[in-house]
């Protein structure tokens, strides 16, 4: 009897399991007639990897809005960027640089050699000037997309830039009953 009661008490508890989840947004606005790539800059913010903005040589496009509505989904633990792009050759680089609060630049993140593909996710959580992360900060996050050709003119194409946010929400509850 005591053994059954003990087992019932041990297995009739509520286990709280912390979990992490992710959500992805994309940039959907840019600095029109300001910092923009030469060819079809609107294609970098249309949400479509089948269209592309183009740059020749050194230029920067400032992305000024994204699809995050600012809804609090939980505590933010990681923020990352990635791009769908193509660079002309090994002398050409595309950098993503977060812009916090509209004016404070983060670090340059080299996206590597891309051939019409997604870059790896680039962690911006602890970048220079990174704020305390909130959903409003994510909603207001901007990003410079910089085409940098070292020593020569070359082209780059970019279609879409995403923000991936890792967050922890309310704990999940699991009840185990033993009869």
How far from one another are the termini? 12 Å
- The level 1 CATH classification is Mainly Beta
Our estimate of the beta-strand percent is over 45%
Order of helices and strands: HEEEEEEEEEEHEEE
Low-confidence segments: 5-17, 171-178
C-alpha Rg, in Å?
22 Å
CATH superfamily: Galactose-binding domain-like
How much is the average pLDDT? 85
Overall shape: it is elongated
Number of strands: 13
What CATH architecture do you see?
Sandwich
Structural class: mainly beta
CATH fold-level name: Jelly Rolls
Count of the separate structural domains: 1
SSE inventory with pairings:
Elements (H helix, E strand, L loop, with lengths): L1 H10 L2 E4 L2 E11 L22 E4 L2 E8 L8 E13 L4 E9 L3 E2 L3 E2 L4 E4 L3 E2 L11 H5 L2 E8 L5 E14 L3 E4 L4
Antiparallel strand pairs: 1-13, 2-4, 2-12, 3-12, 4-11, 5-9, 5-10, 5-12, 6-7, 6-8, 6-11
């Amino acid at each position: 009897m005591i053994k059954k009661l003990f087992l019932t008490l041990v297995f009739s508890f509520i286990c709280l399991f912390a979990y992490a989840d992710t959500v992805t947004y994309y940039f959907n606005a840019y600095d029109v007639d300001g910092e923009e790539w030469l060819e079809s800059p609107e294609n970098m913010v249309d949400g479509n990897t089948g269209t592309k903005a183009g740059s020749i040589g050194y230029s920067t496009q400032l992305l000024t809005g994204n699809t995050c509505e600012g809804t609090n989904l939980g505590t933010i633990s990681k923020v990352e960027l990635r791009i769908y792009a193509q660079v002309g050759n090994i002398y050409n680089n595309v950098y993503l640089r977060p812009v916090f609060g509209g004016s404070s630049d983060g670090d340059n993140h080299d996206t590597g050699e891309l051939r019409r593909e997604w870059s790896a996710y680039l962690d911006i959580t602890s970048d220079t000037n990174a704020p305390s992360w909130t959903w409003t900060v994510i909603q207001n996050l901007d990003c410079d997309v910089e085409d940098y050709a070292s020593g020569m003119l070359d082209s780059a194409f970019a279609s879409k830039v995403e923000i991936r946010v890792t967050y922890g929400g309310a704990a999940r509850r699991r009840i185990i009953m033993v009869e």
